[in-house]
Design brief:
single chain; about 325 residues; alpha/beta; Peroxisomal Thiolase, Chain A, domain 1; 2 domains; four-stranded mixed beta sheet; 10 helices; binds oxa(dethia)-CoA
């Protein structure tokens, strides 16, 4: 007997109410709305308030996804949060989410770090765990508070990122909806191109004595751009080939929302028109692991994804990590 079919039963998302526009940013660093919008497609991003932690945003998105799935928090027995901005190094953000939700079922909880590809990695992981039939309903969340790891004086990165969360509930397929496949990749040799250098202690030194450089994002933008186009195209082609699905049969592509020019280039390479891609980065910027589930929820709630549709998700991020997923609704 094969693995049971698993489907996305519900989606949800949350973004903080505070909006930071390109205009406002141009008062802080030497930039302009014209530069940011023409080079990235971003107009504004959401910024978390002081008490709006990653787990709070994740739980807010999760509540909506659970209700959308027609379930209650007690039905959830696995919570995975993909994030590079956990509330704390320990315990996991997923444990905080469980507490916020008041989950009584002792759901297994852990975080996963695959940077901007985190949601696809978490989806793959939860799909496999549910496929083993040892778990029944999983919350898979991408949540980020990128505003805490951005160097707000560095115009080459601070204009790109935003905060938010997106969540899905996975469970036994109802009807024809199901996850068709996932594919994950990583190229550690290029890890240095995009990273948050860690606070380091020299051998024999204790943290209190060590210099504490700020933990902010450093990125080789042009190199990342080229890799993102090449690798997201590869992730898309290989999953379509593997499942013998023609690109033209995909109703909606949800790419990682980093840069509109990256998305446009992938569309050209795959010979897919721009309308086939769901894009919302104009209003959110790059929300890292939250980007795909945030877009997915918006695509569903606005009717862009309909029952019976086949959706292709493609991600790329630090690692370098990349991956794809095919989902039928
Ligand atoms: O989620 C992980 C994946 N991350 C990404 O996918 C990001 C990928 N990279 C990119 O999206 C683009 O490389 C950026 C948007 C980061 C940069 O765009 P670019 O067209 O590659 O610009 P550039 O880095 O080549 O810089 C061009 C010029 C430079 O000035 P000079 O050296 O030509 O005088 C920069 O200093 O633009 C300047 N610049 C800016 N000017 C105004 C860089 N950032 C800004 C800015 N405002 N914010």
């Amino acid at each position: 007997m094969g693995s049971p079919a698993i489907a996305i039963l519900g989606t949800g998302s949350y973004t903080p109410s505070r909006i930071l526009t390109n205009e406002e940013l141009s008062q802080q660093v030497e930039t302009s709305d014209e530069w940011i919008f023409s080079r990235t497609g971003i107009r504004e991003r959401h910024i978390a308030a002081k008490d709006e932690t990653t787990s709070h945003m994740a739980a807010a998105a999760a509540r909506i996804a659970i209700a959308d799935a027609g379930l209650t928090a007690a039905d959830i027995d696995l919570i995975i949060v993909a994030t590079v901005t956990p509330d704390m190094p320990m315990p996991s953000t997923a444990c905080f989410v469980q507490a916020h939700l008041g989950v009584l079922s002792h759901a297994a909880c852990f975080d996963l770090n695959a940077a901007c590809s985190g949601f696809i990695y978490a989806l793959d992981t939860a799909w496999a765990m549910l496929g083993s039939s040892r778990y029944r309903h999983a919350l898979v969340i991408g949540a980020e508070r990128m505003s805490t790891v951005v160097d707000w004086k560095d115009r080459t990165t601070c204009v790109l990122f935003g905060d938010g969360a997106g969540a899905v509930v996975l469970g036994p397929a109802r009807g024809t909806a199901q996850i068709i496949g996932t594919k994950l990749y990583a190229e550690g040799a290029h890890a240095h191109l995009l990273c948050i250098p860690e606070k380091k202690c020299a051998p024999g030194e204790i943290a209190a004595d060590a210099p504490q450089p700020p933990r902010t994002i450093t990125m080789k933008g042009r190199e990342i751009f080229k890799n993102a186009v090449r690798e997201m195209e590869q992730a898309a082609r290989e999953i379509l080939d593997h499942h013998q699905i023609d690109a033209a049969a995909i109703n909606c592509v949800i790419p990682h929302q980093a840069n509109l020019r990256i998305i446009a280039a992938i569309g050209q390479h795959l010979n897919l028109p721009p309308e086939r891609f769901f894009v919302n980065l104009e209003r959110y910027g790059n929300t890292s692991a939250a980007s795909i589930p945030l877009a997915l929820d918006e695509a569903r709630s606005t009717g862009r994804i309909k029952p019976g549709d086949t959706t292709l998700l493609i991600a790329f991020g630090a690692g370098l990590t990349y991956g794809s997923a095919l989902v039928r609704w």
